[in-house]
Amino acid sequence: MINNQFILNKFGFLGENFLNELHANAVVTDIKAKTEIIREGQKNKYVPFLIKGSIKVFTLNDGRELIYYYIKPNDSCLMTFSSIFTDCTSRVYAVAEEESEVILVPVSVIHEWLIRFPEINRVFYHEYDKRFSDVMNMVNDAVFHRLDKRVLNYIRQQISATGNNPLKITHREIASNLGTSREVVSRVLKKIENEGEIIQTKEGIKIPVNENVRPV
């Protein structure tokens, strides 16, 4: 069943006729953690809207991940939406970081809505603004910050996105997501642990409770 509060918050401004069509055409599905949702080169059949959970959107180069952004609750995948104006072929990978619930709307229906309900563009303009900021932050992080700052920012982002502190993640996963080696990440984590920025336990990597978990 579609989460009515989510629908009202996201699409209520479009009116009752649109909401009725959304209920008639949308599909709600649960996605298990670490499940691949779409891969590069695959045809996009649906535009997803995330109700709960977290989805990582990234590309691969020689087996290494380059993260573009994370889809959080109340968000959609901008790269999926943009592909429907060309050949609907995905240019990215998307994987559920944790158990997630999404609303899937067929691409053909979105095409019709853009004509019949042009105000829906406000939803996607908002997504463009957020994703552009995410990509700018990613580029700034990669170009201007040292690796220790990038690792710490990544951990903070993950804790903020998942709500889990400590964060259960391996050194290899961090290395893959930041485009470096596990050995380097292990050395960096030890360094920032000695500086008191994190605590490494059997339960995962923890930011001290008095630490602001937002990226710097």
Detailed description of the structure:
- The chain has 216 residues and is of the alpha+beta class.
- It is 44% helix and 22% strand.
- The chain is built from eight helices and nine strands.
- The strands form three sheets. The chain has a four-stranded antiparallel beta sheet. Strands 1-7-3 form a three-stranded antiparallel beta sheet.
- β4 and β5 form a beta hairpin.
- It is elongated.
- The protein starts with a helix and ends in a 10-residue tail after the last strand.
- Residues 211-216 have low confidence and may be disordered.
Question: How does the SSE layout of this entry go?
Answer:
Elements (H helix, E strand, L loop, with lengths): L3 H8 L4 H10 L1 E5 L4 E3 L7 E7 L2 E7 L2 E8 L6 H6 L9 E4 L3 E7 H10 L4 H24 L2 H16 L8 H8 L3 H13 L4 E3 L2 E3 L10
Antiparallel strand pairs: 1-7, 2-6, 3-7, 4-5, 4-6, 8-9
Helix pairs in contact: 6-8, 7-8
Key features?
44% helix, transcription regulation, 8 helices, four-stranded antiparallel β-sheet, elongated, three-stranded antiparallel β-sheet, 216 residues, alpha+beta, disordered C terminus, 22% strand
